[in-house]
Amino acid sequence: MSISRSGYRVQRERLLEFFGTGQVRNPVVLTGDRHCTWVSDLRPDFDDPSTPVVGAEITGTSITSGGNPNTASFHATYDPIMAESPHWRYIDNQRGYVRCEVDGARMVSGLRLVDTVSATTANVRTEAEFVVESGRPGIAEVS
């Protein structure tokens, strides 16, 4: 379960407070497998959007587990919640993986999705790319 939604409230709060001290430069949490992809800013208090962004999180899906997803049902459930969750940058339940390129200045993450898990010849595409820049907490979509 991702850090921004996990059930370990005390531990999560302690970790996010530590991220906010500046002792860790540009923390990024990579998690999975929730059978969906989430890209989020991390804040000490997700219920208060005025709290500072202290890090970034990418939760990756598995490429095949759970079979082909029902994207309409997923978005019917989560899009209304996303509208009330300013820390969420991207959500989807299509199968795929995350590819990260990291250097001293930034981390660029490409969300790679497959059209189907039922065929070995499925198309793979980059659905979106996100960047975490050195010295700037949080994550932003690459245009």
Would you kindly provide a brief summary of this structure?
By secondary structure, the chain is of the alpha+beta class.
Q: What coarse outline follows from CA principal-axis ratios?
A: globular
Average residue pLDDT = 90
Structural class: alpha+beta
Order of helices and strands: HEEEHEEEEE
Oligomer: single chain
What gyration radius follows from the Cα positions, in whole Å? 15 Å
Topology:
Elements: H1 9-19, E1 28-32, E2 37-42, E3 55-60, H2 71-83, E4 88-92, E5 96-102, E6 106-114, E7 124-133, E8 136-141
Parallel strand pairs: 1-3
Antiparallel strand pairs: 2-3, 2-4, 5-6, 6-7, 7-8
Task: Please characterize this protein's 3D structure.
This protein is α+β, with helices and mostly antiparallel strands. 17% of the residues lie in helices and 38% in strands. The strands form 2 sheets. Strands 1-3-2-4 form a 4-stranded mixed β-sheet. Strands 5-6-7-8 form a 4-stranded antiparallel β-sheet, with no helix packed on it. Strand 5 and strand 6 (106-114) form a beta hairpin. The longest helix is centred in the middle third of the chain and has 13 residues, at 71-83.
Key terms for this structure?
143 residues, alpha+beta, four-stranded mixed sheet, single chain, four-stranded antiparallel sheet, 8 strands
